[in-house]
Amino acid sequence: MKLKKIAVLGGGSFGTVLANIAASNGFEVSLWVRDSEQALRINSEAANTTYHPELQLSSNIEASENLDEVIKNSSIVLIATPSSIFENVVKRISPSIDEGAHIISCTKGIKLDPFRSMSDIILLNIDASKNSVGVLSGPNLAKEIAEKKVTGTVIASNDDSLINDVKETLSSDTFKIYSSDDIQGVELAGALKNIYAIICGIAESLEVGENAVGLILTRSMAEMSRFAVAKGANPITFLGLAGMGDLVATCTSNLSRNFQLGINLGAGLSLEEAKNKVGQVAEGIRTLEVIKTESARLNISMPLVDSLYDIVYKNASSKTFIDDLVNNPHEVDVEFTY
To answer: pTM of the predicted model, to two decimals?
Structure first.
């Protein structure tokens, strides 16, 4: 399929840098934003000053609030909206997607009641015989991508043509794309690590020490892989970019919104105060509720998830997760079992 136009849905920090990479590679890019004022500013200033004031955008980008126009004649649709509106957006675009177009989730979230990933939501609303689906995830702090710092990501799909087209569209000297056929594993890794980034932010605020951070990261990986196996994903995926790579970057960087949210919670702010101080959507809180419910339903041991839930929703002390971690009787180290 000859690539025609690239549609990027979501004018936030990640959507903007993805749009700019594709546009800089010579593709015509339509960027969907939620209001006409933001679209006008982006088109007139060649910048998205709300999220990336430092980034000069390619002239190949045209922003619009008209979702149907953005989707029209697009060969690749990259959905980078918050998870809270993801399903609504997919339902709106499903009648307008060109046959043969690739639909890729770039959103790291999970929906509850019933438990659904973002790719599940796409597949429920499109004809899979006409459109292929993929997931893009990895340690992709948008500010560093905007600054052209070397970054790796993973495109997961069962369709080789989708993988090749995404690589052609988004690869650059500083943005390296790896492939995977484990859609579920890549997607779960991207969503789950946000929970542990909040925990590491709390740990940073409490000054628990670097040894403790190492403990938290490895126990986080154990919990993530346990959950992944229970949901049918390949635990080996969690050793790669979408798993360990994203976990380390998000759990240790001040650029991570979830890490910053944790720092604010550890400093004694309420959840609403912490979210307001971060300013942008931190998906980890939404994911926490979903994983807490699903892990309880499946009887999966996730003590860090349980502790964070108690801190956020039951007014437990910020130090709870350390006490629970040390006192938890589970003492098996590596748990990558099939």
So the answer is: 0.92
